[in-house]
Amino acid sequence: MEKKLKGCCVVPGIGEGKVLKTSQSISFWGGVDPATGLVNDPRHELFNQSVAGRVLVFPFGKGSSTGSLIILELARINKAPAAIVNVRTEPILATGPIVCKHFYGKEIPVICLDEKTFQMLQTGQNVTVNATENVIFINNPSLP
Amino acid sequence: MRLTDEEKSILDGKQGEAARIALSVLVELGALFGAEELMPVSQVHIDATLYMVDAGLEFAEKIAELGGEVAVPTSLNPSSIDLQRWKEYRVPPKILSKHTRLETAYLKMRAIPTWTCAPYQNGIIPRFGEQIAWGESNAIAFANSVIGARTNRYADLMDICAAIIGKVPKFGLHLTDNRKANTLIQLTDFSNRMFENQAVYPLLGYLFGEMAGDQVAAIDGIPHHVNVDNLKAFCAAAASSGAVGLFHMVGITPEAQNLNMCLQGSKPETILNITPQMITNAEDRLWTVKNDLLDLIVTGCPHYSPAEFIRLEKLIKDQKVHSSITFWVFTNRSVYAWIKNNGILKHLSDAGIMVFTDGCPLQYPQETWHVHAAMTDSAKFANYCFSQRGLDAAFGAIEDCVETAVHGKICRREPPWRKN
Predict the structure, then answer these.
(1) Which CATH number covers residue A100?
(2) Tally of domains in chain A
């Protein structure tokens, strides 16, 4: 049985993968290694975990305006997240996926959820993010 | 979004492929954030100037190769390296070429080679209320908050698109309503003495950014004698610990001549406090050095101003940097020319301090500088240096950095916010 969460499209597209969730904000520049996709900020709770191919779930972005470049590079070397889920997406975070689409023709869908719906996602769930249709499907909702 | 006939013709590719790509990106961003139209900006500051990853180089080269030229005066953020003194900065020739390719691409687009992260201290400085499109988090916070110019937090690549078109979507911090403070942060139990140590400002900024997150917040309690370089340090720290594009400092920044003004007549949704104990804790969080040994001092993050050079010259007077320590200061080409002209550069160089331009200390060539731990007066540098470079950080006022440099081990006055 799958479970459906309603969201709001930020950058359209469809992505599928395992959820990697944090309640902390993320700065891609200074926070994620552009050569490997590993979170490299030792103060971050996702330190040493890879964002590559994951549905990356975090409340909002922070920090340097270079973050977009890191996302574009991760896409170039195929280490980008499969999709991004936020509570609020600020323009800096959206820029990476938008440029990626117009420059490399690759999709990194971004979707926003309200805070309550955001709580339904947990690390390890297998989900399909359909930002174009404003929905996320949890493919294994019984996961503890 | 409502588009003009000219904008439609750009999207149809009638004004070239560079303009088509740039406008497509701007229109998509605008549509996502509810903008109804595009608006002109008078200047752009491009942040995507560090060679860091190939994707950035590919994008800039492609736009330049397609004949893209900036439509409005456009300044450039730092390169990763000192483009002129790259030998002294020990840039390996094999990586030099990528930096110079990026330089070539931007000069071909007719950008101004300012190569600085403090474009608000010299260059094309905007006026109060001016609509601009800036990249670089510290510069965005400064332009919006301290000057009262209006820019969103434009990301790398979006800044290039804005420069090529000379327009941005009309949304966010370009609009008066969105510049209202909804959070108030008050300083409690601070004495005047605590503001005598200049390190209080970056530490306050670091805390402020953590607390404000991506909200527009006002801070009350900063003394009126705060100077522009203190504000610069505050901005850089706040924009590194939070997504701070605009803040108000009551009685100091132009949109907050009083509290009511920046609240635009309403009440704050949230009121938070900063205490001296929180400053102490913030300082401890930035401190990752394990013992009192270090080999690098870094200042000029953001780039050093003439006033900061004058202070540094006084502090190092008649002393020399210890042989075990490398001391870097980063600034821009204009300030470098001034301190060369008035003799400060010679005095610093005689004392063993190295001054570089154009570059960013967070991007130094690691394979040629075998340094392990750095002391800095920049909370931004301290915040990023481990994750960016694997360098441990010690944080202190510039007076402490100079003492440390002279003695070859960490020297630190007890800061006034620490309880004995």
Answers:
(1) 3.50.30.10
(2) 1
Catalytic residue chosen out of the listed positions A27, A50, A64, A65: A64
Structure confidence by residue, pLDDT tens digits, A101-124: 999 999 999 999 999 999 999 999
**Minimal C-alpha gap between A101 and chain B (Å):** 9
DSSP B273-319: EE-HHHHHHHHHHH----SS---EEEE-SSPPPHHHHHHHHHHHTT-
Q: Is the residue at A75 inside a domain?
A: yes
pTM for this prediction = 0.91
Q: A2 CA to chain B: closest CA distance, Å?
A: 29
Q: Give percent helix, percent strand, percent coil of chain B, each to the nearest 5.
A: 40, 15, 45
Paired with B355 in beta bridges are B329
Chain A, residues 38-97, CB within 8 A of chain B, namely 40-43, 60-70, 72-73, 75-76, 88, 90-96
Reported ipTM: 0.87
Q: How confident is the model at residue A63 (pLDDT cuts 50, 70, 90)?
A: low
Q: Does the annotation count A23 as an active-site position?
A: no
- Domains identified in chain B and CATH numbers: 5-175 (3.30.499.10), 180-284 (no CATH), 287-407 (3.30.499.10)
Range of the domain at A49: 3-138
- Residues of B within 8 A of A102 (CB-CB) are 21, 24-25, 28
